[in-house]
Amino acid sequence: MTLEENKRLARRFYEDVLNTGKLDLLEDVLSENFTEHRPSEEDTSGIASFREFLKMVTGAFPDLRIQVNDVLAEGNKVAVRLTVQGTHQGVLMGESEPTGKQATWSGIDILEIESGKITARWSERDLLGLMRQIGAIQ
Question: Phi and psi dihedrals of 116, rounded to 5?
Answer without folding.
Answer: 80, 10
